[in-house]
Write a structure and sequence with these properties.
The complex is a heterodimer. Chain A is α+β, with helices and mostly antiparallel strands. Chain A is built from two helices and six strands; from the N terminus they run H-E-H-E-E-E-E-E. Classes of the chains: A alpha+beta, B alpha/beta.
Chain lengths: 112, 220
Amino acid sequence: MHELSIVEALVEQIGRHLPPKAILRSAVVQAGAMRALDECAMQTAWQVLGHPAFGNQAQLQLKLLRWTLHCPACDKDFEADEPHAPCNCGQVGQSPQASDELRLLSLQVDDA
Amino acid sequence: MNIPVVENVLKINDQLAALNRRRLGQASICAINLIGAPGCGKTALLEATLRLLSADFRCAVLAGDLATQRDADRLAKYCPRVVQINTGKGCHLEAGHVAQALEQLNLADIDLLFIENVGNLICPVGFDVGQNYKVGIFSTTEGDDKPAKHPYIVMEADLLLLNKIDLLEHVPFDRELFEHDIRRLKPDSRLLALSARTLAGIEPWIEQVRQWKNAAPGKQ
């Protein structure tokens, strides 16, 4: 379960960015479809690692991105739930673009 | 209060991987990360590869597994420089595992480093360990649908291998569909088919490893 390792890295990362004495309310994380992250597994890992580190009030907000595909016929990118999805123009055989993002976007905190 | 961050979650791992890569590069070592599901034949491929390359190159192996020393014991017959990495519950190798394992090797005595990742087609893909090349291994016994179900390894691998082609006539495996799914994901993907057991088709793989090693100073 790579979610556990990713949350472990996330907890360490949040610790670096969290101001002293601040109370973490939520951490917003963005993940591309290629990362194959399971929302449920991420939340479980967050309960195991994030809550002891930051308290039970701290929430993990996971923004799972859809696949970004490029249609060679239209020469433009579009989003889809599957990496093999056809473009609206009917063209098949697109290649995924990016979709491997894994970023901590922001922290919502309260002052102590 | 909102604190914008926008930072790669695996930044620390990636920094450590970059250090591994630099350290290996300074020693002129070409490092190849082998990723595949349990039972796809990673260790068997390494046994064959070490047999065929050890006369020309000083090889070393980092063998990742949840538990046991078995892979290291198998590979030690063909290579004197094998380090077993047991990850316990960890389903993949991280840069830190590799950094620690490198401490057990004399890098000046190594030309080629094979990193046999923990058997898994998902988790190891996203963790840079400092390799120069990433190789994804499928096998005919796993079924022809694995590229479609595991797009990340197809997208990320520098080379894909289809192992156990000697069993093609015994298992339901649509090779055309298998290759079609790979091309749909990554049209320029490179695929070699071989059998680590019979050595059928092994030579292009061996030649590829030779080319990678000889391509100084290695891909960064």
